[in-house]
Amino acid sequence: MESVNAKYVSQKISKTRWRPVSHSSLQQPDIFATGSWDNENNKISFWSIGNHGSSDMEDGFEGDPQLLCEHKHDGDVLDLQFLDQDRIVTTSSTGAVTIFRHHQNSETISVSQSWPRVHRYPCDNAPCTGVVCSSPEIVTVGEDGKIIVFRADQEGVVRVIENADSSTIHAVTYLRTTEILTVNSIGQLKLWDFRQQSNSPSQILSLSGDRVPLHCVDRHPNQQHIVATGGQDGMLCVWDVRQGSTPFSLMEAHSAESGVRH
Fold first, then answer.
1. By CB distance 3.0 to 4.6 Å, which of 84, 91, 186, 237 could disulfide with 79?
2. Domain that holds residue 192
3. Which residue in 88, 63, 87, 90 sits closest to 74, CA to CA?
């Protein structure tokens, strides 16, 4: 029988991500990161499910998550993606994008790079809703309808598509090295090709006659033209971006809006 370990962490968790392991490693991931939201003081935290030479007999479960380190985070953590094994990128409700570095020898976290208020309205901050990484490149999207491209080794912003969308962009993922996909609050899936200088999408897909918000998107790990999205109405849609404007598969999944991950 599979065992399930639960741990009370006294904070609301918005996102969690496993730290990647090298492709040549035979080890399974044993460290993950979490980001919190709607707390008096939000945090980014690193946890381990490995033994690390000690056991917590009080908890009584081998592999019970152990807190390694944590760092204050300004605003709610709206998305979280590893850039590499040591660095993780967070997006904030304040409109900021931050790279944190996990120092494994000392089990501490420091801010490696930060871009405050990059997503904003004319008179206020705009929440940065999503991020995707392909080191050293970082792409973020926000409620302000912008797509912003960064490089981890540069202080400035590489590219901004100011009016990428007239509605909130909820999520972003890579399709190929130079192409990304975004989903928005009016049910559209948009394909963007960074090789083009145009600030318009190269393709727009949508459900026929439907404007239900799409909240998450991910591509198939082996067949890059196959894409899955999750909608606010609990519908999971599978698309072939080579074949026209509508999905070829629809499935009811009432938790679809919470996230699609392969």
1. 91
2. 184-262
3. 90
